[in-house]
Amino acid sequence: MTLISKVGNFVTGTARMAFLGGNKVYYAWLAFLAACIVQALFAYAHQYDRGLISTSMRDSVSWGFYIGNFTFLVGVAAAAVLLVVPAYVYDWKPIKEVALFGELLAVASIVMCLLFVLVDMGRPDRFWHILPFIGRMNLPSAIMAWDAIVLNIYLAVNLVVASYLVYCGYHGIQYNKKFVWPLVIFSIPMAISIHTVTAFLYNGMASRPYWNSAILAPRFIASAFCSGPALLLILFQILRKVSAFEIKDEAIHKVAELMAYAMGFNLFLFGAEVFKEYYSNTHHLVHYEYLFAGLHGEPSPIAWYAWMSLAFAVISFFLFLIPKTRRNIVTMNIGCVLIYASVYIEKGIALIIPGFTPDQLGQVYAYVPSSTELRVAAGVFGVGFLLFTLMVKVSVAILFERPQAEAQPAHAEAQPARA
Amino acid sequence: MRELPTLPAMPAPEPTAEGYTRREALVMGLFALAAAATTTGCAVDRQAFDDFVAKHFKDLSPAELQDRLAQMEKRYTESYGKPVKVSATPAQEGVLFGYALDLSRCIGCRRCVYGCVEENNQSRDPQTHWITVLEMDKEDGVNLQNANAFYDHETVPAPGKFYMPVACQQCENPPCVKVCPVAATWKEPDGIVVIDYDWCIGCRCCISACPYGARRFNWGTPHIPKDEFNPVTEYLGNRPRQRGVVEKCSFCIQRVRKGLYPKCVEVCPVGARKFGNQLDPDSEIRYIIENKRVYILKEELNTQPKFFYYYGL
Q1: What is the model's pLDDT at position A407?
Q2: Residue A321 structural domain
């Protein structure tokens, strides 16, 4: 077989695996995601037609729900590293088989990140201005330009590694370790860098005291190490139920333990931030007052979410810290949902909005996303989840469900074992 | 101020050869793709094409700049039903503009705000203002957390209040320029921070970075009644803006580079606004900086504004 026919065979074969042979729930899920995407296309068409005035963003709060989601998803993408580090570096067997799914999650998340940036742009038609060579990137000073670079490199690396491993598994051939290994090692600092650069995007703005804190990047990394794995743990349990995917309880508990440490560190950093602001009690405290209560006697529309996020974080920290609740399937899943919700609120709402409220001249604009923003965001998540679902379906089918005779132990080959 | 040469003196990259450069070819390819992907089925007209491939202002050769200016004049003349002039007046040598505002004189009448709107072709619907006038308590002093930009009195000044107009401070160290991912905004040699509206991608990083809340985004399509349109315009100043791009005060670049005062200085009924060349030792602005106790907004951020507040009375 020539390479071209091999690749063609791979594409048609995986497409068949992605769309055929699912159960009713699978097709219902795909239909649901497709519906999310279709309604979002209408919402985006409306926004494209009328401009960003159809969002609730204004000059006072000039970034909102879109950029909040973008930031959250960069964290989810970076979190793939949490699974890759122990799997590849420490050669810790139980986690190794799940690292591929971390990479697939990273790919889907970065795609969502790029879409959120695109829908937030005032002139999406001028996207080419930020492309290297044909555009005019403001390097080295603009963090947004750096972010575009690292996000695209991270996307490319994960896409190449994951699709190469799946491709080799599909054809039952031994993958080339010399090709995969350096890319995997490279993806580890890249994961740290995408979230660090994204944090620097906010961190570097002296005009916004709420973000102008040296521990913003460490906080981003710590919270990402909670939210990404939370999503994967739930996914693994679903896959274990509905497919031939195998994962030992030991691996799940180990990931949960790592999440407990990450959440503990995240809460510590948050506490350090809160102490600094409230104890020094400067004018800069207004942003925290808006986050947790409100200003000028007006309650803030986000205070309720901020307290909820904090409560979820504390509860899930203890659920994951105590071995008994960590190993109990019910309490662990409650913990996963709480962690995901907590970090989603923290990044999506509590990071962006108070940074802009009050604005640079002390004016308060109570931002709440418009229905257009919510609908478009639902569509972006729809695209990401659809992509992730299809990729996971294919990977599981190739690595866990194919007859062993056909592709030898494809299962074992897909993992860069050093045996 | 001395007389200006009217020739565009922007740096020319290199003489353009016949045919297309690699960059132009790539951009055109992208445009073809975008057009092909368009589901609306509307014809791709020449204007849309020109806008899509429009180069960065600093990448235009002198000939291309003249073409672009002529194109714009034609288009704006058609849209607004009167002859429109679009210039690209270069900065004068030996000029560094400076602005001073006497807080003890300002009465908060907002004539500057609306004078600016008319002069600089800001959108009337949705309403865009480059100048924000803050009302604060005399007892409290300059405290932005208690400032009110939306005061609405029958007459001003209100008892016990003072007023602080804020617009672009034309920083020597501008955070907005630093963060722009596509270099669509930059500082000119005479100190004015300008925006190329044809290059801005509307990411709004600059709005986040500006400590003075000076930048405005065109959330909707800007609208100016034809009879109110100011036909004397500048490429990097008051020419019409598109939806989805950022704009802000340019010290009335279309006026000050021709030796006129900014409109806000001209319309201020109490003479609170002073403007001039900081490098001219005999200028009024220089006198104020040297002899008055000037105040810089958010001095600790090291933005080094060319805008000085002072108490003259």
Answers
A1: 42
A2: 14-413
CB distance B269 to B109 below 8 Å: yes
> Is there a domain that residue A243 lies in?
yes
Smallest Cβ–Cβ distance between B202 and the set A122, A138, A363 belongs to A122
Chain B residues with CB-CB distance to A125 below 8 A: 34, 52
Q: Which of B147, B175, B199 sits opposite A206 (nearest CB)?
A: B175
Distance from the A211 Cα atom to the nearest Cα atom in chain B, whole angstroms = 11
Q: Report how far residue A93's alpha carbon sits from residue A96's, in angstroms, rounded to the nearest whole number.
A: 5
Q: What are phi and psi of A402, to 5 degrees?
A: -75, 145
B219–A52 C-beta distance less than 8 A: yes
Q: Are A137 and A130 in contact (CB under 8 A)?
A: yes
> With a cut of 70, which residues of chain A have pLDDT below it?
1, 81-82, 84, 86-98, 402-419
| Contact at CB, A123 and B245, closer than 8 angstroms | yes
- Judge whether A209 and A215 are in contact, CB under 8 Å: no
Q: How many CB pairs under 8 A join A and B?
A: 159
Q: Give B-chain residues touching A360 at CB under 8 angstroms.
A: 144, 210-213
Distance CA B184, CA B197 (A): 8
* Residues of B in Cβ contact (< 8 Å) with A134: 23, 26-27, 30
pLDDT at B107 over 60: yes
Domains present along chain B, CATH in parentheses: 22-87 (no CATH), 94-313 (3.30.70.20)
Amino acid symbol at A395: S
Q: Is A207 close to B215, i.e. CB distance below 8 A?
A: no
Which one has a higher pLDDT value, B112 or A416? Answer: B112
Contact B209 A358 (CB under 8 A): no
Q: How do strand B216-217 and strand B232-234 relate by DSSP bridges?
A: unpaired
Is A195 a domain residue? yes
Q: Complex ipTM, two decimals?
A: 0.90
Task: Give the residue on B whose Cα is nearest the Cα of A146.
Answer: B181
A97-101, B111-115, B205-209: the lowest-pLDDT one: A97-101
**What CA–CA distance (Å, rounded) separates B210 from A205?**
8
Single-letter code of the amino acid located at B39: T
At how many degrees (to 10) do helices A371-396 and A216-242 cross?
A: 50
Residue A4 lies in a domain: no
Rounded-to-integer distance, Cα B156 and Cα B153, Å: 7
Q: Which residue does chain A place closest to B130, by CA atoms? A: A59
d(CA B288, CA B309): 10
Among chain A residues, the shortest Cα distance to B148 is held by: A363
State residue A408's pLDDT score.
43
Q: State whether A130 and B146 contact (CB < 8 Å).
A: no
Whole-prediction pTM? 0.90
Nearest-CB residue to A360 (from B203, B204, B212) = B212
Of B59, B204, B219, the CB nearest to A53: B219
Q: Domain with A231 in it: what CATH number? A: 1.20.1630.10
Is A8 contained in some domain?
A: no
Query: What pLDDT is recorded for position A165?
Result: 86
CB distance A122–B212 less than 8 Å? no
Closest by alpha carbon to A226, among A286, A143, A316?
A: A316
Give pLDDT, residue A177: 83
Domain count, chain A: 1
